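Q: Joint fold for the lines below.
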Amino acid sequence: MSEFQLIANYFNQPSLTSVGESPAELGIGDDCALLSIPDQQQLAVSIDTLVADVHFPAEAAAEQIGYRALAVSVSDLAAMGATPSWFTLALTLPEANESWLAEFAKGLSCAANQFGIRLIGGDTTKGPLTISIQVQGIVSARQTMLRSNAKVGDHIYVSGTLGDAAAALDYVIPQPMLSANDTPTIAFLYQRYFQPEPRLLLGKQLATLGVNCAIDISDGLLADLGHILEASAKAEQPLGAQIDLTALPISQALVSQTNKAQATHLALTGGDDYELCFTASTELAQQLSPLVEAGEITLIGNITTQPGIVDNQGQSIMVTHSGYQHF
Amino acid sequence: MSEFQLIANYFNQPSLTSVGESPAELGIGDDCALLSIPDQQQLAVSIDTLVADVHFPAEAAAEQIGYRALAVSVSDLAAMGATPSWFTLALTLPEANESWLAEFAKGLSCAANQFGIRLIGGDTTKGPLTISIQVQGIVSARQTMLRSNAKVGDHIYVSGTLGDAAAALDYVIPQPMLSANDTPTIAFLYQRYFQPEPRLLLGKQLATLGVNCAIDISDGLLADLGHILEASAKAEQPLGAQIDLTALPISQALVSQTNKAQATHLALTGGDDYELCFTASTELAQQLSPLVEAGEITLIGNITTQPGIVDNQGQSIMVTHSGYQHF
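A: Joint structure:
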């Protein structure tokens, strides 16, 4: 099978190329795709690579690999408050295995339809299984959420529950007897890893409300909150965070699969949840309260002037917990 | 070294992030980069992956790998008549080898400055050496060159000389005794592979003159001209091409390193030259003649109504020559 047959058979299909509300001026099939950006809008772009057996188990179902690859990339758009529009796929494969490709494309297409993002181009090459996806989204120039906008006194919030995907990686996926069709607890954790839900709607709601500082949690809460602190600190104003460990949103499934201490550790350090962490001035607390009451977001702490991340007793929680190390 | 130190040490540097004329609204360091596109302009995007020992020799100098990776991606912008603006880099590395990274970044930076394109984001991951680069460029909505615009009777032109990079791969690079500092012939072929020259200025000149059909030659002339024929053919109007084999632009270096027959074969089938192949109506011939006289472009044939690619005697030249097969 040539590269061109492969693209025609699996990727240049309406279920991937005619998705969402943003047609491209020119899609798959030329040297470049061509995009038009609406007036007063900016293009948000992010590229992510997933390597087999580093970022996902190589033996996982191809459909799950495809879905998850697009979901984790789209999560970066959610963290900017952007609306997904277009993506490109650079797929490196050891061989053109037709059933693997069909399943991979199925998962990719499912995610593309879920998030309203269409495939506009890519590159398929022979080599060790590696997936790079660049997502493009549209965002209003006046409503962007940056890592560098946290201020002393801001509340710190997270969406959803934390630690589930890490628990799936530690406890569920290594046990081949368990599967997505197992008990509800196992199924929930399994899904949290393989079908992360980019918080697109929430991201846009937050940006509209005036929240201007957010990140998605891919490396773990401590690591990603650390990125916010680092990006927002200034020479004359160092920043830190105080976290109420008892407030961390932890799912019943996670507690039942581990214990309270382990669950807290995973919630602080586990990556792959793709929930949002954001900060907001206390003046926004009232406007955010409906989302808190609905359980969509949880207030977990505050931005302080003391460098580091501490618990309510002032004890550093960086010493005992650390995030994902890439190298 | 963490991923973040690696990015700070080698990639988040002015020699990569402050290049060219198109500032990004937001560059490296957040969930997404943010771009603004000028009115009446479109964004041209293309992603390319290079896998070690598939698309380049893994043991090549890191500086050459970096330069070439960006050059071959930018070539897709040249083929659209677009001006390079921004690129993202998804770099997968077996280990964070500091001297390799420094040399790779040096080559990348050299190419970025050469082509006026700035680094706005990326992803660094651990795994088998793989480089995906997405380039973004700006193009006037009224001056795009597509593969699908060839017409019966059009002249077919190519830029530069063909087959040099393939000769380098076949004859020069496998001989470790030879190097870029060898005889001028060897140095020329070596450079043609490792420092391909995206035809950016020519691409824009052609688009301005009204040329509306182009492709860059990455898989070989026959394969890439075949893409033009396939994209431009319609049910009621099949297309083919007649090529004057004696007109193919072949460098002295290529002839001296091979012989006439081998040189012609490499010119027809060798990829990696990143020259442009384009078609133009005969009415543009006069406007194109200064480029022909300057040796920048060469008229090699015509678009015909007979499917296939034939020589001046009407003999098919697809039977004996085929392009690069990706799988």
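Q: Anything notable?
A: Chain A touches chain B through 70 residues (CB under 8 Å). The radius of gyration of chain A is 20 Å.
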